[in-house]
Amino acid sequence: MITHIAKLSSPVFLALSLAALLGCKKDGIEIKPPDPVAVVVPAADPEVISLSSALSQQLVAADRAGEIRVRLRIDAAALKDSKRPPINVVLVMDSSGSMEGKAIEDARAAALALVDGLAEGDHFSVVTFDSLARVLVPSTTIDAQSQASIREHITKMAARGTTDLAGGLAAGLAEVQRGYLNNGVNRVVLLSDGVPNDESAMPGLSQQAAAMRVSITALGLGLEYNETLLASLAQQTGGKFHFIEDSARVAAVLGDEVLRLERVVAQNLTLTLQPGPGVTIEGVLGHNGQPLANRGLQLGLGDLGEGNHRELIVRLRVGPHRDGASLELMDAVLGFSDAVVGAGALERRVFVAARTSSDPAKVAASRDPAIERQFARAMADAATVDAIALARSGQLAAANTILDRAEPEARQAAKQFDDAELRTQAEGLIKLRKALPTLGPAPQPAMPANGGMQPAAVIAAPMAPADSPATVKRSHARAVQRLQGE
Predict the structure, then answer these.
(1) How much is the pTM?
(2) Residue 85 in contact with residue 79, Cβ under 8 Å?
(3) Of 298, 254, 211, 312, which is closest to residue 89 (Cα–Cα)?
(4) What does the H/E/C string look like for 23-50?
(5) Using CA atoms, how far apart are residues 168 and 128, in angstroms rounded to an integer?
(6) Cβ of 182: how many Cβ atoms within 10 Å?
(7) CA-CA distances (angstroms) from residue 265 to 1, 122, 305, 323, 336?
(8) pLDDT per residue over 59-85, tens digit each?
């Protein structure tokens, strides 16, 4: 076609070109002008999100390797007038037999209150799980008519059977996909009061949710649920974890969750950390990041609401350098999607650097007590979470080792900074150590050394306090919520 056009005389070619542009009929064929091309200009960055850094010390010892801590802070400004993004929320509710009675009644009431808190145009679904997973309310757009139908279905929620949590979460992810809002907030809210029938599928479901950019808010009800499992689901998907001791509090927590969703100004926060030459990222307290090929680390942080902030403590390992050298410690890049004016994908960057010194007095004087105190508190919280996870997996000795190391460190830091919170944390670590045996398997009788047929008597372990289950859940919840950094 191009060859034929090239052979046309200039006047003919010009005539056809004008005909195509203006629209006319030639030889009975109507030639229409092309549709106008819509140029979409992205909105300007509303500059609601900021990223800043602070060092635990400005100077690093020049003659030896050491650790330096960096506090990264993400801030979301408060808005005068903001229109919240649409919400797509799926409620995944435990309806197993252990929920019978007041718990399932309170869960029904909470679900109804959650529906009342949604706005027209939001998407909503309810999945229950007991021995089987059931889609009680398929993904539905909220309006006056659908709300009545949704409420009718919720009232049919009943407690029975075992705990197919994996099946319930899988069905919940399918529903959140059905109602997915590219320009909105997509969330699964999971409530469970027990241990799932089979945990093997949970890591894959967590990865699926993270890949879908769907955060999971995990609510642990009562004293029997697996706190490590639920908290990891929230942490790995950028969601939040809450411990609800009394089922009467479920409605209030769900109401707070809706309020949090209404105020989202930045979605799908991703923090990428790139260490400088000779620097190693030891980790981010309370977070399990994804290692990158270039020695970096990437963390998914979910969404952030207006007026809120998030703080993270990064541990860096640096090697010896000459006196007075400039250390290129780390680049931190925060990527997110704007949920205020539709400005699209945005990012913030900070570069972190320090200097070396061979003068111990100058190094000591450069320390920031506030960040060191924050680090000490976070270390105690991380030890709490790690010890509970180890004890739950049957590694009680390893859990005790962590607490035996963490408790004196917290007590020493409490004395150094004259910090009442650290003293409370140190006491809590002692109490937690006494409660941990309730998470592990029961002690087995030892066989007699003489080869006899009768087993030797079981060596009695110290009796755990009666309030041990509550101690574990409360200690875990406090530690996780502080490590969430909000």
Answers:
(1) 0.84
(2) no
(3) 254
(4) CEEECCEEECCCCCCCCCCCCCCCCCEE
(5) 6
(6) 7
(7) 52, 17, 5, 45, 10
(8) 999 989 999 999 999 999 988 876 778
